[in-house]
Specification:
Layout lengths: L2 H33 L1 H6 L8 H10 L1 H5 L2 H17 L1 E5 L7 H15 L12 E5 L3 E3 L4 E3 L1 E4 L3 E5 H9 L7 H15 L10 H19 L14 H14 L1 H7 L1 H11 L15
Parallel strand pairs: 1-2, 2-6
Antiparallel strand pairs: 3-4, 5-6
Helix pairs in contact: 3-6, 5-6, 6-8, 8-10, 9-12, 11-12
């Protein structure tokens, strides 16, 4: 068999797997998420958030406090499941991972994915926490946070807390880095693959590139300049503003805001952010 025939067979095999295996699985998963959201959430019955964790959550998470009693219980159980799935590792002089670190970092992960009940950042199973900014041997620069495609989410605890303290600035390290993880998770072939609506994501990217051009020309008036770095940074900055400045975001660009609600399957401006519209 010559090389061309061998490559052709490989490509055909990939096409067959995608058409008859991956694509049907994705369709079934989306149908389950859409029609059986409550069923998925009931399966969380085996997960319970520790009382001290619940106290931390209620004290510091504005998003959680605004939820209905029913959704608070779902949030708690989803958070308990997320924490059970992840390994938190102290780095850079940080002596240990505290309960507050676990709960607050995990709460941002559940906040972003609350409209996607089957998404738990499966690919990212290790979360590294530094006390402050850290030096990266790869970029040879100091960072406050990053997401590594190898399966690591890396955060500066100092910067994370600063973002939570100033909750309406549109700058939040936790939301920013977890938005990167969400964007990457969507593209990785695993149980959580392609959960963001393809058509909505494509339309979002088109509008995002137009907004990035305005920023580069000096005509941007809402998103900070860093959003124009690339499409990944724009998505992360969008998520920050979506949760921290939703009213201003919607007033500035209603169409982009609407696309964002469809992508994340929630609307922070609603009394119930994942209300009946998304069920």
């Amino acid at each position: 068999m010559d090389a061309f025939s061998y490559i052709t067979i490989i490509l055909l095999s990939i096409l067959i797997v995608f058409t008859f295996v991956i694509q049907p699985i994705r369709i079934v998963r989306d149908l389950i998420n859409h029609f059986y959201r409550d069923t998925l959430n009931r399966h969380l019955i085996f997960y319970r958030l520790k009382p001290r964790y619940k106290k931390i959550l209620g004290t510091y998470s504005i998003y959680y406090r605004k939820l209905t009693p029913k959704n608070k219980r779902v949030f708690e159980r989803r958070l308990a499941k997320f924490l059970a799935m992840k390994e938190f590792i102290p780095r850079g002089g940080l002596e240990k991972i505290t309960d507050e670190m676990k709960v607050l970092i995990g709460s941002k992960a559940i906040q972003i994915t609350f409209g996607h009940p089957s998404v738990y950042f499966e690919h990212f199973w290790r979360i590294l926490v530094y006390q402050d900014s850290y030096y990266s041997q790869i970029s040879r620069q100091y960072h406050k946070g990053e997401v590594n495609a190898g399966g690591f989410i890396i955060l500066s605890w100092k910067s994370f807390i600063e973002g939570m303290a100033d909750h309406d600035s549109g700058i939040n390290l936790g939301l920013h880095e977890l938005a990167h993880a969400l964007h990457i998770e969507n593209a990785i072939t695993n149980n959580e693959y392609n959960f963001l609506n393809e058509k909505k994501l494509s339309a979002f990217h088109e509008m995002a590139y137009a907004e990035m051009e305005r920023i580069k020309k000096g005509d941007g008036v809402f998103f900070r300049d860093y959003a124009a770095t690339n499409i990944h940074e724009f998505f992360a900055v969008m998520v920050e503003n979506f949760f921290e400045r939703p009213s201003e975001f919607k007033s500035y660009n209603p169409a982009l805001y609407a696309l964002s609600t469809h992508l994340l399957q929630q609307d922070p401006l609603l009394p119930d952010p994942i209300g009946q519209y998304f069920r």
